[in-house]
Amino acid sequence: MNSPHPIQIENINFSYGRNSVLENANLIIEDKEFVCMVGPNGGGKTTLLKLILGLLEPQQGTISVFGNAPILGRKQIGYLPQHANLDSKFPVTVLDVVLMGRLGKTRIMGFYTQKDRAAAVEMLARVGLDKLINRPLAELSGGQRQRVLIARALVSEPQLLLLDEPTSSLDDYVERELYDLLLELNKELAVVVVTHDIGFVSSYVSKVICVNRQVRIHPTSAINENIIHDMYGKHIHMVRHDQEHGHA
Q1: Cα four-point dihedral sign 46, 52, 56, 61
Q2: What's the rounded Cα separation, in Å, for the pair 30 and 121?
Q3: β-strands 19-29, 214-219 pairing
Q4: Is the distance from CB of 80 to CB of 166 less than 8 angstroms?
Q5: Number of other residues whose CB lies within 10 A of the CB of residue 117
Q6: Where are the beta strands (DSSP E) in 96-196?
Q7: What domains sit in the chain, N to C, each tagged with a CATH number?
Q8: What pLDDT digit, counting tens, does each position of 173-195 carry?
Q9: What pLDDT is stored for residue 2 in this prediction?
């Protein structure tokens, strides 16, 4: 028997009052896919993420996350929100932040176990930050903080990594490093990245999910300037193929 898809969405509609946000949306994310999601502000991307995470319920249609209702399936999702609620001046270490990812996995509150700490150390090693384990969060660069947050998402042992604009404040070099890391992680789990700039991800992802009230799916190679501008606005950058990655 085939295992259930990480995400399967069928004919969903969602509105805030009279404001229709998603109409007859369909989407399947396969096991170990690496895809990106694009679309204009207000087009429905954030709403779609909330539906997948079980934070909202569609008025029509069905959503399955690893064969379960989203509220149950989200335990298998590692999530990096666009604006993580972390005060960089708050006196916590890198290890403290990653351990937060074990909350809800092994406990709701209370002391962390030796297993929790071992898992956190392992994830920090995977993102290349094991030498900074006791470093205060405030001393890290923007790229390092994003790696810490990815480690926090990974420490819950997910099968799908969902990232909402993880590189929005990073320079080109750090952005490339981060996507190289995601490509490596993609060998073991599915990765969905929400972005406004598909220049970098065009050489990493297999397909582009375009969300603008409706959901349309395109192979990366089919995306061109006319499609982006006509359907989703000129604020989304043109796909380019100037990097060498054999994945997509």
Answers
A1: positive
A2: 29
A3: unpaired
A4: yes
A5: 15
A6: 160-164, 190-194
A7: 7-86+159-232 (3.40.50.300)
A8: 888 888 889 999 999 999 999 98
A9: 63
Distances in Å between the Cα of 62 and the Cα atoms of 29, 57, 68, 74, 115 are 14, 9, 11, 15, 36
Q: Beta partners for 22? A: 14
CA angle 246, 52, 232 (to 5 degrees): 65
pLDDT class of 7 with cuts at 50, 70, 90: very high
Angstrom distance (rounded) from CA 147 to CA 227: 33
Q: What local confidence, expressed as pLDDT, does residue 1 receive?
A: 47
What is the number of alpha carbons within 13 Å of residue 103 lying toward its C-beta? 10
pLDDT tens digits, 44-77: 999 999 999 999 999 999 999 999 999 999 999 9
CA 25 to CA 95: how far, in whole Å? 39
| Two tokens, residue 42 | 């207000």
Place of tokens 């660069």: 141
User: In the structure encoding, which two tokens stand for residue 32, read together?
Assistant: 């170990």
190-194 vs 34-38, strand pairing mode: parallel
User: What torsion do the CA atoms of 43, 46, 49, 50 make, to the nearest 10 degrees?
Assistant: -120
Reading the block at residue 15, the tokens are: 């509105």
